[in-house]
Amino acid sequence: MEHSNDMSALFRRLFFIAIIAVSLTHCTSVPNGHIEQPAPNNALLEQAQLASSQNKHLQAAKLYEQLAKNVSSNEAENFLGMAADAYLKGGDINSAERIVATLSSQSTGIQLLQASILLKQGKTEQSGRVLDAINTGLLTNSQRIELHTLRSSAFFQSGNLYESARERVKLDALALPTDERILNQNALVETLQLLSIQALDILKPVPNDPMFAWIELAIALKVQPSNNNPAITLWRQNYPTHSANNGLLPHLLQKGQQAHKPSGKVAVFLPNTGPYASTAQQIRQGIMSAAYTLDNTTTNVTFYDSHNTAITTLYQQALRDGMQAIIGPLDKQRVAELHQLPDHSIPVIALNKFEGNAPNQTVSLSLNPEDDVVQVASLVWLKGYQRALILTPQTKFGQRLASHFANIWQQFGGTINGVQTYNPKQADYSTSIKSLLHIDNSQNRFKQLRRQLNLSIEFKERRRQDVDFIFLIASPRDGRLIKPQLRFHHATQLPVFSTGKIYDGNHNPVANSDLDDVYFCDIPSLIEPNNYVEIDTTSLSNQWGLSGGSSKRLFALGVDAYQAITQIDRLKNNTLARFSGSTGILSMTPQGKVNRQLSCATFKRGKIKPLGLAPHLEKADVFQPLEHTATPNASSIAIPL
User: Fold this and answer.
1) Is residue 435, in this structure, part of any structural domain at all?
2) Is 350 a domain residue?
3) Out of 29, 113, 138, 594, which residue is the most buried by the measure of CB atoms under 10 Å away?
């Protein structure tokens, strides 16, 4: 896919944003332009068409396969193509791929189908190559719509938000039904608004480029999505015939006015004492800072001590006090108690996860480490690696994350070729590292050979060659000790990936130089706040004297919890809606869970080098943490398929 040749370094870096939240191919309803329908019209074909019209896609796929058995080869290819398309719509990607692999035709419909399958599998580069090979000169309108929709999704998944939006500008120029045009325009604006105002200013093309007007609109809406915003008024004056004026802009302004109303009276359920008091204090500071920044006051926030007080009592007291929203509680037990309450009449931002679906008006926002593991695994997968080694501490937390990574990685289609634990209380990890890399096997073979030959022979350690990368679970202290030891034991060429726990959140090039070339994903406010974060959480957390990465993440959670109060309805009513928060790009599942899209980075000369937003493979959305009591091993990992 083509890029401008005169992009600045920052321009290029902003383009390379790895984000996959949900495939945007659903933003525009595409007519059935995959396959040309064959001529026969019989009862079986009518059954297949009826099943398809009723969204019984898997049933339709099987019927199309039956139809392919008793017709000519050309007609069979068309029926099989329709079967593959139906399988894809029904979520059976493997069957769709199986059928497409048997087709000899390379028609435009088949190429579009191949690209769709590859995108569903997270193979964005291969999908892009298929799309680039399509002859655009002979496309029908429906095929052209599908081409640009797939291109937009491919750019989106490979991290190029700007070009993803540009493809939607091209879609806007095609013949689309009004409702589909508004959906496409909404996706376009949502994509641009994932970037900060500073980033959008840098990305502006020349004024006569159609993208210029869309970026101007995105910036105006980010500042204040209201009819009272002078920037909106000026935009309408500058672009009176722009297509966004016909339906989309009034719709966005109405939503924006609702989303940017003051938060009202907010109750916060956090403990003042007990084991979670320190954690709660940092979240509390984030809430106070967000309230003052957004609403210019903190008098609307009331804190209730949740330690040793039943949630039912707190909830009823908050209602009597006229509270309009609740943040908290923090610990799982009290969140579970909240789940059981019969009355859920005001919005609640719970700070831990629910079991099952969240009650009405209640959502879950937390710093769940399993979610971070999913995004790191997705980053590794998009880089094309397959064979993994896991190095994890001998702790319950380390074993939990190692098991979750192994579960995800095998479902992606990768392999776990080795797992090794280490004692985090030690400073010398050579025994664990040598065992993981099979260097001890190399040493044993050398000793055996020397005994057999009875000669003084030269020995050079060799590590195993059946791996592509190492997934490392480590604290900043352990990571700074382990990475140099990996280099010493001949693992220089093995990429190392980790979660944000390896980063202490501080600019310390001397100490962090030992982490050079480690890839990790963390909250955007610690990685690249200028690109995504509108509230300056770095300065605000510094005002509270917070220095550690853990403290800053909890502070950011408090900021986002307060911001989310006015975003619940928008996010819950549209699974494609996004919000740029301090802990990530926020979206919401139908079950009420807030997903956080992290930022990824690597260490270079001890400094953070941002890589953009973390990917979130579509198939990773269905993964759930497993309960494990032991560290996984390469030969025995329970994976539900």
Assistant:
1) no
2) yes
3) 594
Contact present, 57 and 89 (Cβ < 8 Å): yes
With contact defined as beta carbons under 8 Å apart, do 555 and 354 qualify?
no
Please give the tally of structural domains in the chain: 1
Tokens of 639: 């994976």
The per-type count for the chain, helices as H runs and strands as E runs, is 28, 15
Write the CATH number for 545: 3.40.50.2300
Q: What is the pLDDT of residue 538?
A: 77
For 419, the 3-state DSSP assignment is strand
Q: List helix spans (H) across 476-622.
A: 476-488, 509-512, 524-527, 529-532, 537-543, 549-564, 568-573
CA–CA separation, 487 vs 482, rounded Å?
A: 9
Backbone angles phi, psi at 579, to 5 degrees: -145, 130
Cα–Cα distance for residue pair 4/584, rounded to 1 Å? 28
Residue 133, both tokens:
């090979």
pLDDT value of position 633: 42
C-alpha–C-alpha distance, residues 105 and 101, integer Å? 10
The answer as to whether 317 is a domain residue is yes
**Residue-level length of the chain:** 641
Angle at 184 between CA 183 and CA 188, to 5 degrees: 120
Cis peptide before 329 (omega within 30 of 0): yes
Beta-bridge partners for 426? none
Q: Is the dihedral of CA 219, 583, 572, 119 positive or negative?
A: positive
- Supply the DSSP string of 328-372, one letter for each residue: ---SHHHHHHHHT-S---S-EEESSPPSSSPPTTEEE----HHHH
* Token pair for 275: 């084991």
The backbone region for 500, taken as left when phi is positive above 0, alpha when psi lies in -120 to 50, beta otherwise, is alpha
Expressed as residue numbers, the domain containing 309 is 265-364+534-573
CB 530 within 8 A of CB 202: no
Residues 198, 200: Cα–Cα separation, whole Å: 6
3-state class of 538 per DSSP?
Answer: helix
Q: Which two tokens stand for residue 428?
A: 């010398």
Q: Tokens for 362? A: 């209640």
Residue 471 · residue 389 · CB < 8 Å = yes
Whether 561 maps to a domain, the answer reads: yes
Question: Averaged in consecutive runs of 10 residues, what is the pLDDT profile of the chain (641 residues)?
Answer: 39 34 37 48 86 94 92 89 93 93 88 92 85 91 95 82 92 92 91 84 91 93 71 91 87 61 86 95 95 86 94 95 96 90 89 83 93 94 92 96 96 93 94 88 54 54 84 97 93 94 94 96 88 74 84 96 89 81 90 92 95 68 42 33 19
Return the exposure string of 93-123: e unless at least 16 CB atoms fall within 10 Å of the residue's CB, then b. Answer: bebbbebbeebebeebbbbbbbbbbbbbbbb
For 410-444, letters b (16+ CB in 10 Å) and e give: bbbebbbbbbbbbebeeeebeebbbbbbbbeebee
CA distances from 86 to 56, 89, 101, 281, 470 (A): 9, 5, 15, 52, 38
CA 3 from centroid of its chain's CA atoms: 24
Q: Cα–Cα distance between 593 and 207 in angstroms, integer?
A: 40
